[in-house]
Write a structure and sequence with these properties.
There is one protein chain. This protein has eight helices and four strands. The protein is mainly α and 202 residues long. It has one domain. A two-stranded antiparallel sheet has the order 1-2. Strands 3-4 form a two-stranded antiparallel ribbon. Strand 1 and strand 2 form a beta hairpin. Helix 1 packs across helix 2, helix 1 packs across helix 3 and helix 2 runs antiparallel to helix 3. The protein starts with a helix and ends with a strand. The model has no long low-confidence stretch (mean pLDDT 84).
Length: 202
Amino acid sequence: QWVNQSFNAIVNYTNRSGDAPITPSQLGTAYVSATTGAVVTALGLKSLTKHLPALIGRYVPFAAVAAANCINIPLMRQRELKLGIPVTDENGNRLGESTAAAQKAIFQVVVSRIGMAAPAMAIPPVIMNMLEKRAFLKRYPYLNAPLQVGLVGLCLVFATPLCCALFPQKSSMPVSSLEPEVQDQIRKKDPWLETVYFNKGL
C-alpha cells in the first residue's frame, strides 16, 4: 500500500496544474500526509473484509482506492488549492491565478482516477466469483492469478483513455464562478470576457 500510494503521490505531483513554487519541506509534508492518509484509509477499509460476504469483500479494495484518490490527489496538489492555478483567455493569455479553478481541476482529476479504477475493480470480481463456483478453477487453480491480471489489464486498456477523456485537458469555467478578487482583476483587463480556461492536470 505504501509503495502504491508513494507512486500515486509522484504521479499526482508531476501531473499537477499550475506553476506555484514549492519548497522541499512543503513537498515532503505533502508526500507524508498524502501517503499516510491514503494508506490508513485503505488498510482501515480492508480490515472490514473479514466480516463481509466474499463478493462484497471483493469490492472493498475499490472503495479503498477511491478513498485514497480523494485524499492523495488534493494533498499532493494542496499548493494549488492555497495559491490557485493560472487561468487564461481562449488565446492562452494569462489573466491571473484562481483557487476556484484549482478546486474544479482537482475534482475532475479525482473523478477521472476513480473512473479509471472502477471497471478493473468492479468487473473482474463478478467474473472470478462466478468462475470459482464452477469446476473450471477448481480443476485448474493455477489459472486464478493469470485470469485476474488479464481481466484487470483488459479493463484498464479501455478505462484509462476513456476516463482521461471525461473532461477536456484545457478545462473552462465562467468568470462569474471565480473568486471576486480574480473577477475584478479580469474585468480590468477584459470587461467582456465570460469564460476562462485552465489546465486541469492529469
